From TrEMBL:
Pfam families reported for this sequence: Phasin_2
Domain Phasin: 32-126
InterPro entries: Phasin (IPR018968), Phasin_subfam-1 (IPR010127)
Protein name per Swiss-Prot or TrEMBL: Phasin family protein
Top-level taxon of the source organism: Bacteria
Length: 141
């Protein structure tokens, strides 16, 4: 299986696949070598995306942990103050959980937009690459 975060591994895999095809009058290795930077950029984008997803998950966990800790503290104080939970305890809990979920959703939305922007950059480069290959592969007159 290909390691999507290692540029050398990705490049070697592409070389192996493309090396299976023989195109008359074409130096496939030279063409592929000229695209090494593209492949490295894709690997870097994958690494960055993975780090972003991991960071997002950690931040969402922190938000939830902080909210639950605050709710636990609130419940303990309410219990100590009279043994009976206040009438609005349920409402306070619901509001705190709604806020935590809204914060987590906002983070996910921000991450999604950043990822979409990154994908757009890579997609643009891939389209340019295809056009360059078309030019390279046209028969010489």
């Amino acid at each position: 299986m290909m390691d999507s975060t290692n540029p050398n591994s990705i490049f070697d895999e592409y070389k192996k696949v493309i090396g299976q095809f023989k195109l008359p009058g074409m130096d496939v290795s030279a063409i592929l070598e000229s695209r090494r930077k593209d492949i490295e950029a894709i690997a870097e984008a994958n690494t960055t995306a993975l780090a972003g997803v991991q960071s997002l998950a950690q931040k969402q966990s922190e938000i939830l942990r902080t909210t639950l800790t605050e709710l636990q503290s609130f419940a303990a104080r309410a219990a100590q103050s009279g043994g009976q939970p206040a009438a609005n305890t349920g409402e306070v809990v619901q509001q705190a959980l709604r806020k935590a979920l809204a914060d987590m959703q906002e983070l996910a939305g921000t991450a999604y937009r950043a990822q979409s922007d990154s994908v757009a950059v890579v997609t643009k480069r891939v389209a340019e690459h295809v056009e360059e290959l078309k030019t390279l592969l046209q028969p010489k007159k």
